[in-house]
Amino acid sequence: DIAEINSGQDIYKAKRTKGNIPYVTATALNNGIGYYVGNNNKTLEKGCLSVNRNGSVGYSFYHDYSALFSNDCRKLRLKYPSKHVGIFISQQITRQKDKYGYGYKMGTARIKRQRIMLPINENKAPDYEYMENYMKQLELKKLKKYLQYKTIEN
Q: Residue 106: exposed, middle, or buried by beta-carbon count in 10 A (0-12, 13-18, 19+)?
């Protein structure tokens, strides 16, 4: 049990207002963001994961910014809140996407039953420190590669 699972809430097209708040839908693109809206509802949160239950079923994204979540996805509030752990776990969830589809959606009950591979510590508990450090190393590696490219380019 690594997260609390919550449903999203639809903001239908006729009710959407223009704004700057990311509205996470069931797309596999743009970190799951389908629209930017001026609306607000109880799903507004940051530092959580989204898991698509419809549309691009099984894709998961970490959101380190305040966003609203549609009912086509589930919002996961991690019990160990951390950007890097969130990214690690969202990637592990996305690896399971091929077993889901339109006829076999990834709803709340299936997310609760879903098993993902996580590193464990000597107490057989999720090793959040390892996940954090691993993702930080990957981020640093990508940043160094980007900076080398920019240096060569200039």
A: buried
Higher-confidence residue: 61 or 154? 61
Please provide the distance, in angstroms rounded to a whole number, between the alpha carbons at the two ends of the chain: 48
Is residue 47's pLDDT more than 70? yes
Question: Per residue in 89-122, pLDDT tens?
Answer: 999 999 999 999 888 999 899 999 999 999 999 9
Structure tokens at 58: 């099984």
**Closest among 102, 110, 77 to 69, alpha carbons compared:** 77
Calculate ∠ Cα 91-38-71, nearest 5°: 45
Which domains, and CATH codes, for the chain?
3-116 (3.90.220.20)
Share of the chain above pLDDT 90, in %: 92
What is the residue-wise DSSP string for 70-123?
A: -TTEEEEEESS--HHHHHHHHHHHHTTGGG-BTTB---HHHHHH------B-TT
Which positions ≥6 away from 56 have C-beta within 8 Å? 26, 27, 28
The rounded distance, in Å, linking the Cα atoms of 73 and 53 is 5
